[in-house]
Amino acid sequence: MAIMPVVKMDNPVLHQKAKKVRKIDGSIQKLIDDMIDTMHDIEGVGLAAPQVGVPLQVVVIQMPDEEDVITLINPEIVKTSEESEEMTEGCLSLPGYRGDVKRFTSITVKARDREGKPIRIKGEGLMAQALQHEVDHVNGIVFVDHLESMDKLEKTEAEDEEESGSI
Ligand code: NI
């Protein structure tokens, strides 16, 4: 078990497109395991490899109250709903802040799982939001990039910081 430090918003790794994983070997399996440990430690809903300083297209997501962790390698959005809605969002790389971001209400992502098998995941609601947030991360986009200005960021109260900084 290894918990990795989560990089903060000023780190350039969060603002560049991550590289595609070419070969899913032992080092990628270890990265996935460490990312899962880190996500559990900080009680996050999802984590992308750039957030632990690794510029690779690897994402882990676990919905609250679900046992299964979804691992997405080289994820790509293949389909979105026509509808979108403003959703309040925070990021583990920007603790203490949140903002309203327009997200598709439903989305389909294709990727490879940790065994390298091609998978498609369809998500709605929080899952759709988490998928869009994490696919953004591997493309060097953070949620504040979607805000009109940094003035739209809200500071969260100490007691709900955990909840707001969850993706
Ligand atoms: Ni994030």
Overview of the structural elements:
The chain is built from 3 helices and 8 strands. The chain has helices spanning 26-41, 126-138, 161-164, and strands at 46-48, 58-61, 70-80, 84-89, 97-104, 106-112, 118-124, 154-155. A hairpin with a 7-residue loop joins strand 4 (84-89) and strand 5 (97-104). The longest helix is centred in the N-terminal third of the chain and has 16 residues, at 26-41. The structure holds nickel (II) ion (NI). Nickel (II) ion binds next to helix 2.
Task: Write a short abstract of this structure.
With 167 residues, the protein is an alpha+beta fold.
The CATH topology turns out to be Peptide Deformylase
Largest sheet: 5 strands, antiparallel
CATH architecture: Alpha-Beta Complex
Strand content: 25-35%
* Radius of gyration, whole Å: 15 Å
Strand order of the largest sheet: 1-2-3-6-7
Query: What is the CA–CA distance across the termini?
Result: 21 Å
Global mean pLDDT: 93
Helix amount, in percent? 10-25%
Give, in order, the helices and strands: HEEEEEEEHEH
Small-molecule binders here are: nickel (II) ion
Low-confidence residue ranges: none
CATH homologous group name: Peptide deformylase
Shape: globular
Q: Helical region count? A: 3
Q: How many structural domains does the protein architecture include?
A: 1
Q: What's the level 1 CATH class?
A: Alpha Beta
**What class do helices, strands and sheet pairing give?**
alpha+beta
